[in-house]
Write a structure and sequence with these properties.
With 389 residues, the protein is mainly alpha-helical. It is 68% helix and 1% strand.
Length: 389
């Protein structure tokens, strides 16, 4: 992209690259069957949350174990807003856009509160606060069961394919389009912030908060902003997942899922948006591949039942250990390491050219010496009298 558009730099270049990749992803949905499009939509929903989480941990150095809760808040915000608009007689694209706005407002408000706490807490204390948030979700939905419907969750109106596209695409492909468009906006914004002034300040606060404060960087404000932006991305992912599954319930956003998001961004590569995409794909595809492999083996029913949930956790744990030992920067760092290795390789020495035979040059004649005069070299030698002495 840089070679094709060398004049583009900064945010315009990021926006152009994001638009091109989004268009390619939309076109790629025509090559997939309905089930694969459903998987792609799910991966894209997780990608929004993972991209915000990898920037929060990798750039600002703040650990969050509660991003599943932020996704749940975004899903509930979308469902409540969408149901209210349906009762008011509003549907179609306006209902979807206003529902997304409700999801962003709910997740952004919670993220702002967590960011204010993150500006004063560090390390395990911040992780404990976010961890308590995930654990509190079922209790909150049970206490306010009249609004959140308890463990059953909320059902939302069906987002049907528009009439202009009904003959071209199926419902699964339409859901994939919605997820891709939302992820394109969210991830492009995160990439622009990562390469901008906010990204530089987040790195400065992560590396040395005291030095950043001495250089005029408002560390507290940077932490709050980072947590809020990451929460908005997670809320958008939760809203997209709500559109894909047509429901939202506390059982889908457990502590195990929240920890799985952290594992995904670590395996993919902290601070790398491409690594977040790799980790999101692993969350969806790896359990499906394991289930497909175990179902094809002639295993006893009791053993297959035990392996159905535990084998996935075991594989993710082993993958985390292997990637941490082999590639500390995550799977996204493999390509960067190859580029650095190629750049640091010594250049191949060129074959020296053999010079042509030089023509012998006659020495220049010495200037004549006048009678009684001394030769120029003799001026550096002692006189005859001095030599005799």
């Amino acid at each position: 992209m840089t070679r094709l558009l060398p004049s583009l730099t900064g945010a315009p270049r990021t926006i152009v690259i994001g638009a091109v990749l989004t268009a390619l992803a939309l076109g790629g949905t025509f090559l997939l069957d309905p089930h694969r499009n459903f998987q792609l939509a799910t991966i894209t929903a997780y990608f929004c949350a993972a991209a915000g989480l990898t920037l929060l941990i990798g750039l600002s150095g703040q650990l969050s174990l509660g991003h599943a809760a932020l996704m749940a808040v975004g899903g509930y915000g979308y469902a409540l807003t969408s149901n209210a608009l349906t009762d008011a007689g509003i549907d179609g694209v306006p209902r979807f856009l206003l529902g997304m706005l409700g999801a962003l407002v709910a997740s952004g408000a919670l993220g702002l509160l967590l960011g204010l706490a993150a500006a004063r807490l560090k390390g395990p204390y911040l992780a404990g606060v976010t961890l308590a948030l995930v654990i509190a979700i079922p209790a909150v939905t049970a206490v306010f069961s009249g609004v959140f419907r308890g463990d059953q969750g909320l059902q939302m109106p069906f987002e049907d394919v528009p009439d202009s596209l009904e003959r071209i695409i199926a419902i699964e492909q339409w859901q994939a389009w919605i997820a891709i468009l939302v992820a394109g906006v969210v991830v492009t914004t995160l990439a622009a912030l990562q390469r901008g002034r906010l990204g530089l300040r987040m790195r400065a606060v992560r590396d040395d908060e005291t030095a950043a404060r001495l250089n005029g960087v408002p560390a507290g404000r940077v932490k709050v902003t980072a947590f809020t932006v990451s929460s908005l991305a997670a809320g958008a992912g939760g809203a997209v997942l709500c559109v894909v599954t047509q429901s939202v319930s506390p059982g889908a956003y457990t502590l195990a899922f929240s920890l799985l998001l952290v594992v995904a961004v670590v395996v993919g590569g902290l601070g790398s948006i491409g690594g977040a995409a790799i980790g999101s794909a692993l969350i969806v595809l790896l359990p499906w591949l394991i289930a497909t492999g175990t179902s094809s083996l002639p295993l006893p029913a009791e053993l297959a039942q035990r392996l159905s949930g535990n084998l996935t956790v075991l594989v993710f744990g082993a993958l985390l250990i292997v990637v941490t030992l082999a590639w500390p920067g995550g799977l996204a760092s493999i390509r960067r390491r190859r580029r650095r290795a190629d750049a640091s390789a010594p250049p191949t020495p060129a074959t020296p050219e053999v010079p042509a035979a030089a023509t012998p040059v006659a020495p220049a004649p010495e200037p004549p010496v006048a009678a009684g005069a001394r030769h120029p070299i003799e001026s550096f030698l002692p006189s005859t009298t001095q030599r005799k002495r």
